[in-house]
Amino acid sequence: MKVLVIGLGGVTNGGKTTLAEKLKNMLPNCDIISQDDFFKPECEVETDERGFKLYDVLDALYMDEMVTSIRNWMKSPASSGVVTEEPESTCDNLKNVYILIVEGFLLYNYEPLNELWNRRYFLTLPYEECKRRRSTRVYQPADTPGYFDGHVWPMYLKYKNELEENASMKVEYLDGTKSQEELLSYVYSDIIQELNKLRE
Protein backbone atom coordinates (compact mmCIF):
# COMPACT_ATOMS: atom_id res chain seq x y z
CA MET A 1 0.00 0.00 0.00
CA LYS A 2 1.31 3.44 -0.94
CA VAL A 3 0.16 6.83 0.26
CA LEU A 4 0.38 10.18 -1.51
CA VAL A 5 -0.16 13.34 0.56
CA ILE A 6 -0.98 16.46 -1.43
CA GLY A 7 -1.00 19.94 0.11
CA LEU A 8 -3.41 22.45 -1.41
CA GLY A 9 -2.69 25.72 0.35
CA GLY A 10 -2.85 29.41 -0.33
CA VAL A 11 -4.84 32.58 -0.15
CA THR A 12 -8.32 32.90 1.36
CA ASN A 13 -11.03 32.43 -1.30
CA GLY A 14 -8.42 31.18 -3.77
CA GLY A 15 -10.46 28.11 -4.76
CA LYS A 16 -8.77 25.50 -2.57
CA THR A 17 -11.90 23.69 -1.39
CA THR A 18 -13.49 23.61 -4.85
CA LEU A 19 -10.31 22.26 -6.40
CA ALA A 20 -9.90 19.65 -3.66
CA GLU A 21 -13.48 18.38 -4.12
CA LYS A 22 -13.09 18.14 -7.89
CA LEU A 23 -9.80 16.27 -7.58
CA LYS A 24 -11.37 13.88 -5.09
CA ASN A 25 -14.02 12.98 -7.65
CA MET A 26 -11.40 12.27 -10.31
CA LEU A 27 -8.71 10.42 -8.37
CA PRO A 28 -8.76 6.83 -7.07
CA ASN A 29 -8.98 6.19 -3.29
CA CYS A 30 -8.90 9.89 -2.51
CA ASP A 31 -9.82 11.64 0.73
CA ILE A 32 -9.74 15.27 1.97
CA ILE A 33 -8.75 16.78 5.31
CA SER A 34 -9.63 20.47 5.66
CA GLN A 35 -7.68 22.83 7.90
CA ASP A 36 -10.86 24.80 8.58
CA ASP A 37 -12.03 21.86 10.73
CA PHE A 38 -9.23 22.60 13.22
CA PHE A 39 -10.03 26.19 14.17
CA LYS A 40 -10.17 26.84 17.90
CA PRO A 41 -13.52 28.11 19.26
CA GLU A 42 -13.95 31.87 19.10
CA CYS A 43 -13.37 32.29 22.85
CA GLU A 44 -9.86 30.81 22.49
CA VAL A 45 -8.81 33.01 19.55
CA GLU A 46 -6.79 36.08 20.52
CA THR A 47 -8.03 39.62 19.86
CA ASP A 48 -5.60 42.40 18.97
CA GLU A 49 -5.66 46.01 20.16
CA ARG A 50 -7.95 46.99 17.27
CA GLY A 51 -10.51 44.40 18.31
CA PHE A 52 -9.71 42.04 15.41
CA LYS A 53 -9.98 38.33 16.12
CA LEU A 54 -6.66 36.85 14.98
CA TYR A 55 -7.91 33.90 12.95
CA ASP A 56 -5.28 33.96 10.20
CA VAL A 57 -2.38 32.76 12.37
CA LEU A 58 -1.22 29.30 13.45
CA ASP A 59 -2.21 29.96 17.08
CA ALA A 60 -5.89 30.09 16.02
CA LEU A 61 -5.72 26.42 15.00
CA TYR A 62 -5.28 23.07 16.74
CA MET A 63 -2.29 22.26 14.53
CA ASP A 64 -1.12 19.27 16.59
CA GLU A 65 -4.53 17.66 16.20
CA MET A 66 -4.35 18.28 12.47
CA VAL A 67 -0.94 16.58 12.21
CA THR A 68 -2.28 13.65 14.25
CA SER A 69 -5.31 13.31 11.94
CA ILE A 70 -3.09 13.25 8.86
CA ARG A 71 -0.69 10.73 10.40
CA ASN A 72 -3.58 8.48 11.47
CA TRP A 73 -5.00 8.61 7.96
CA MET A 74 -1.58 7.70 6.53
CA LYS A 75 -1.32 4.68 8.83
CA SER A 76 -4.63 3.20 7.71
CA PRO A 77 -6.27 5.09 4.84
CA ALA A 78 -8.56 2.19 4.01
CA SER A 79 -10.24 2.46 7.41
CA SER A 80 -10.91 6.18 6.99
CA GLY A 81 -14.06 5.49 5.01
CA VAL A 82 -12.39 6.51 1.76
CA VAL A 83 -14.46 5.33 -1.20
CA THR A 84 -12.44 2.77 -3.11
CA GLU A 85 -14.57 2.55 -6.23
CA GLU A 86 -12.21 3.03 -9.12
CA PRO A 87 -12.86 5.82 -11.61
CA GLU A 88 -13.22 4.22 -15.07
CA SER A 89 -9.85 5.35 -16.39
CA THR A 90 -7.79 4.08 -13.46
CA CYS A 91 -5.34 1.30 -14.13
CA ASP A 92 -5.31 -1.80 -11.95
CA ASN A 93 -1.89 -0.95 -10.61
CA LEU A 94 -3.28 2.06 -8.74
CA LYS A 95 -5.57 -0.01 -6.54
CA ASN A 96 -3.06 0.03 -3.67
CA VAL A 97 -2.42 3.75 -3.79
CA TYR A 98 -4.30 6.08 -1.44
CA ILE A 99 -4.33 9.85 -1.90
CA LEU A 100 -4.94 12.42 0.80
CA ILE A 101 -5.55 16.05 -0.16
CA VAL A 102 -5.01 18.44 2.74
CA GLU A 103 -6.48 21.85 1.99
CA GLY A 104 -6.04 25.01 4.01
CA PHE A 105 -4.73 28.55 4.12
CA LEU A 106 -1.73 27.88 6.39
CA LEU A 107 -0.19 24.53 5.55
CA TYR A 108 3.49 25.09 4.88
CA ASN A 109 4.52 27.33 7.77
CA TYR A 110 4.20 24.63 10.42
CA GLU A 111 7.30 22.48 10.64
CA PRO A 112 5.75 19.14 11.74
CA LEU A 113 3.60 19.12 8.59
CA ASN A 114 6.48 19.73 6.23
CA GLU A 115 7.85 16.19 6.30
CA LEU A 116 4.49 14.76 5.20
CA TRP A 117 3.94 16.32 1.77
CA ASN A 118 4.55 14.55 -1.54
CA ARG A 119 3.42 17.65 -3.47
CA ARG A 120 2.71 21.22 -2.35
CA TYR A 121 0.47 23.62 -4.27
CA PHE A 122 -0.18 27.22 -3.31
CA LEU A 123 -3.01 29.26 -4.82
CA THR A 124 -2.45 32.99 -5.17
CA LEU A 125 -4.76 35.91 -5.97
CA PRO A 126 -4.11 39.62 -6.48
CA TYR A 127 -5.32 41.87 -3.67
CA GLU A 128 -8.38 43.34 -5.45
CA GLU A 129 -9.73 39.97 -6.60
CA CYS A 130 -9.16 38.37 -3.20
CA LYS A 131 -10.96 41.24 -1.44
CA ARG A 132 -13.85 41.06 -3.93
CA ARG A 133 -14.30 37.30 -3.43
CA ARG A 134 -13.96 37.56 0.35
CA SER A 135 -16.71 40.21 0.44
CA THR A 136 -19.17 37.75 -1.14
CA ARG A 137 -18.66 35.10 1.56
CA VAL A 138 -20.36 34.88 4.94
CA TYR A 139 -18.14 33.90 7.87
CA GLN A 140 -18.91 32.86 11.45
CA PRO A 141 -18.02 35.16 13.14
CA ALA A 142 -18.57 37.71 10.36
CA ASP A 143 -15.68 39.83 9.09
CA THR A 144 -15.70 43.17 10.92
CA PRO A 145 -15.12 46.41 8.94
CA GLY A 146 -11.43 46.73 8.05
CA TYR A 147 -10.71 43.10 8.95
CA PHE A 148 -9.50 42.08 5.49
CA ASP A 149 -7.03 44.96 5.20
CA GLY A 150 -6.11 44.99 8.89
CA HIS A 151 -5.55 41.26 9.45
CA VAL A 152 -6.38 38.80 6.66
CA TRP A 153 -4.30 40.22 3.79
CA PRO A 154 -1.23 41.23 5.89
CA MET A 155 -1.09 37.69 7.37
CA TYR A 156 -1.37 36.14 3.91
CA LEU A 157 1.57 38.27 2.70
CA LYS A 158 3.60 37.48 5.83
CA TYR A 159 3.23 33.71 5.48
CA LYS A 160 3.69 33.78 1.70
CA ASN A 161 6.95 35.73 2.14
CA GLU A 162 8.15 33.19 4.73
CA LEU A 163 7.45 30.47 2.21
CA GLU A 164 9.26 32.21 -0.63
CA GLU A 165 12.30 32.80 1.59
CA ASN A 166 12.55 29.12 2.49
CA ALA A 167 14.68 27.81 -0.37
CA SER A 168 14.36 24.16 0.71
CA MET A 169 10.59 24.26 0.25
CA LYS A 170 9.41 23.01 -3.13
CA VAL A 171 6.08 24.71 -3.74
CA GLU A 172 4.11 24.92 -6.98
CA TYR A 173 2.43 28.35 -7.16
CA LEU A 174 -0.92 28.42 -8.95
CA ASP A 175 -2.71 31.50 -10.30
CA GLY A 176 -6.14 31.51 -8.64
CA THR A 177 -7.55 33.83 -11.32
CA LYS A 178 -7.32 31.03 -13.90
CA SER A 179 -10.48 29.06 -14.66
CA GLN A 180 -11.35 26.14 -12.38
CA GLU A 181 -11.07 23.83 -15.38
CA GLU A 182 -7.55 25.02 -16.17
CA LEU A 183 -6.37 24.65 -12.57
CA LEU A 184 -8.00 21.25 -12.23
CA SER A 185 -6.46 19.99 -15.46
CA TYR A 186 -2.98 21.14 -14.45
CA VAL A 187 -3.01 19.76 -10.89
CA TYR A 188 -4.69 16.50 -11.94
CA SER A 189 -1.99 15.85 -14.59
CA ASP A 190 0.71 16.66 -12.08
CA ILE A 191 -0.71 14.24 -9.50
CA ILE A 192 -1.04 11.49 -12.11
CA GLN A 193 2.67 11.92 -12.91
CA GLU A 194 3.40 11.61 -9.19
CA LEU A 195 1.31 8.42 -9.03
CA ASN A 196 3.21 6.98 -11.97
CA LYS A 197 6.50 7.66 -10.15
CA LEU A 198 5.17 5.77 -7.13
CA ARG A 199 4.42 2.75 -9.31
CA GLU A 200 7.87 2.58 -10.87
UniProtKB/TrEMBL annotation:
Catalytic activity line of the entry: beta-D-ribosylnicotinate + ATP = nicotinate beta-D-ribonucleotide + ADP + H(+); beta-nicotinamide D-riboside + ATP = beta-nicotinamide D-ribonucleotide + ADP + H(+)
Q: Does the keyword Metal-binding apply?
A: yes
Name one process (GO BP) from the record: pyridine nucleotide biosynthetic process
Q: What keywords appear on the UniProt entry?
A: ATP-binding, Kinase, Magnesium, Metal-binding, Nucleotide-binding, Pyridine nucleotide biosynthesis, Transferase
Report one GO cellular component. Answer: cytosol
Q: Does the keyword Cell membrane apply?
A: no
Any one GO molecular function term: ATP binding
**Matches recorded under InterPro entries:** P-loop_NTPase
Q: Could you tell me which Pfam families the record lists for this protein? A: AAA_18
Which residue stretches, if any, does this entry annotate as coiled coil? none
Pathway listed: Cofactor biosynthesis; NAD(+) biosynthesis
Q: Give the family, as the similarity comment puts it.
A: Belongs to the uridine kinase family. NRK subfamily.
Q: What is this protein called?
A: NRK1 kinase
